[in-house]
Amino acid sequence: MSEKQASFYESVERNFDKAAGFTGLPKGLLEQIKVCNSIYQMNFPVRIGNGFQVIEAYRVQHSHHRLPTKGGIRFSHHVNQDEVMALASLMTYKCALVDVPFGGAKGGVKISPRKYTPEQLEKITRRYAVELVRKNFIGPGVDVPAPDYGTGSREMAWILDTYQQLRNGELDSAACVTGKPVHQNGIQGRTEATGRGVFYGLREMLSYPEDCKAMGMTPGIEGKTMVIQGLGNVGTYTGSISIKEGGVKVIAVSEIEGTIINEKGIDIDKLVKYRKNKGSIIGFPGTKKLDKRDDWVAIPCDILVPAALESQINKSNAKRVKAKIIAEAANGPVTANAEEILLKKGIVIVPDMYLNAGGVTVSYFEWLKNLSHVRYGRIEKRFDHNAYSNIVALVEKTTGKKVSQKEKTFLTKGADEVDLVRSGLEETMVTAYAQIREVYKRKKKVEDLRTAAFVSAINKVASDYMTLGIFP
């Protein structure tokens, strides 16, 4: 199948089929896991200006092996049924891989957000939410949307408000959607979650000396060079956190307006502020603009991070890649045909279904918070602080030495919500990578991390089906 013929969904199916052969599961069970269970395609009118515009939108629930289903909503003029089906499928495998108890889902609205005012976007978002409620495609125990490309906490707040108006008095209504503003039943750490998960995943991968040696790299993430394509939420936090907490050097950034490079390193936080003021990354002090924007793919580096849309590395440019690791921060940025070329070149691809799972992991924490109706850390933070203070006081009394106030504050601090969220996310990424690596090392013919991740995910979903007695 040629690159032009292979759609995003077909590419996901090819990866599934490649891994399925290593599971030993019955054909019928594999077909059930693979297929999308429910597809809702809708067209609804919204008053825009002096007239009406008919909006095309989708919601796909890929798997009902666990409920609720879970997945983001994207606003993009590229949205189509194939794309939403592919993204919903990846959500099923992603949730299974990181042991988050959801089935996979995804939503899409075929619009370009930049062409609409905030008031018009609110109308579209609320109308879409009404359609989901009418067909029972949203609810705390049914299907829980979240932000994706082109949407954020603002849109999630509109959806929550619309849902609560239509389902007045529902006790757990706040759990109908995640990625909400913190002051509207959201959770601290959700905005950075996907980018932070990318950092934790890369750091964990590079913690194994023998694996690093096989890639021709020294162990550890510190000092590694990184190129980022896409300075949205995911790309921004991946770069910023990798620099601050990992000692990574970001040497190039690519965006729609062009690609800039500085071998000495680019400060992502300053670059984001510069772009906000100037409307472009071009001209950022100390950087040079590449003649061709798409040349980001060929910049020599340790880690290449495609953090925008799918199919950015494809058959036409895969041969130009000079990175040692491709970190799939976006969904499906490497096509199936491109992957074949990259693997032959010895380039390691850290798959999206693992690496960008930080978003759904923290969404899970938010969902649990909404169902429990209590903020993380509220019950135990003060108790822990008092207990640690007593321990420090006892040590001071026993040793006769005083601890400085700065040290005492550090030692006696109880965990805030964001501390607990980050800790839970870190544990999730560490554990999931260990499971992927175990499959990769154990099964001799599994030659890449994506196949290993699919094998791990498929086996977990299959276990749920067999537990339910559907497939004995």
Keywords for this structure?
15% strand, Rossmann fold, alpha/beta, 16 helices, 7-stranded mixed beta sheet, 5-stranded mixed beta sheet, globular, 472 residues
Topology readout:
Layout: H1 8-20, H2 27-34, E1 38-48, E2 51-61, E3 69-75, H3 81-97, E4 103-109, H4 118-134, E5 143-147, H5 153-166, H6 193-205, H7 209-214, E6 225-229, H8 233-246, E7 249-255, E8 258-261, H9 268-278, E9 288-289, E10 301-306, E11 323-327, H10 336-344, E12 348-350, H11 352-355, H12 358-372, H13 381-399, H14 405-412, H15 417-442, H16 449-468
Parallel strand pairs: 3-4, 3-5, 6-7, 6-10, 10-11, 11-12
Antiparallel strand pairs: 1-2, 2-4, 7-8, 8-9
Helix pairs in contact: 1-3, 1-16, 3-16, 4-5, 6-8, 6-12, 6-15, 12-15, 15-16
